[in-house]
Amino acid sequence: MSKTASDRELLTAIADLLPPEITTPEQVASRIGGPGPVLVTFCNPLSVLMARKHVDFIPLLKRFDLVHADGILLAKSASGIRRRPIARLSYDGNSVGLACWNRLKEINGTVALVGGVEGVAQAAGNVLSESGLNVVYTHSGFFDGPEHRARVMQELIQLNPTAVISGMGAPHQERFVVALVDAGYQGFAATCGGYLDQLSKAGKASHYPEWVNRLNLRFVHRVLSEPRRMLSRYVFDYAPFYRAATSSAVAGTFRNVGLGGRREESRSGL
Question: pTM, whole model, 2 decimals?
Answer without folding.
Answer: 0.87
